[in-house]
Design a protein that fits this description.
The protein is α+β, with helices and mostly antiparallel strands and 153 residues long. It has helices at residues 14-21, 27-30, 118-152, and strands spanning 2-10, 34-39, 50-57, 60-72, 76-81, 86-95, 98-107. The chain has one domain (2-152): START domain (Alpha-D-Glucose-1,6-Bisphosphate, Chain A, domain 4, 2-Layer Sandwich), CATH 3.30.530.20.
Length: 153
């Protein structure tokens, strides 16, 4: 099992951040390879929900269905694809002034298609995860600022 671990601190309360991170309609706005999503996209996903992700990664189109296999609001959520050959777990913890978000991507060599060698694919996954979480931080903080401005008006 290959693991890509990425951590970011997002300014805001844990419950709000959990709900935004687990709303799939935002994926194309922050995840570098996500082109579009369908399924449960307009609300935070729950245990058993599915989201179909169309992506373009490493010069190739990718298409798959994620299933929420663990959901414990607001601490963690796990999604799996391809019978567990790839899994993403988000863990949330309240910290001083915000929320720490840990994204753990795990995948087997079986998930990596024949056109990529494992090292190149791992580098791609690290890069996309790092860029993605920084973009996620910016997106979530902007949404929370907008919501705060609207509620104070």
């Amino acid at each position: 099992m290959n693991i890509v671990l990425t951590i970011v601190r997002i300014n805001g309360p844990i419950n709000a951040i959990f709900d935004l991170v687990t709303t799939a309609r935002y994926w194309p706005a922050w995840h570098p390879s996500t082109v579009s999503v369908v399924g449960v996209t307009e609300r935070p996903y729950q245990l058993g929900d599915t989201v179909r992700q169309m992506a373009h990664s490493g010069g190739r189109p990718r298409d798959g269905v994620w299933t929420v296999t663990e959901h414990c609001r607001p601490e963690r959520v796990t999604l799996q694809m391809h019978g567990g050959d790839i899994e993403i777990r988000y863990t949330f913890a309240a910290v001083e002034g915000g929320t720490q978000v840990i994204r753990r991507l795990m995948y087997t060599a079986d998930f990596v298609d024949g056109g990529h060698d494992l090292t190149t694919f791992e580098q791609l996954m690290h890069s996309e995860s790092e860029v993605g979480l920084l973009q996620l931080k910016g997106l979530v903080e902007a949404i929370l600022r907008q919501e705060a401005e609207h509620s104070s008006s």
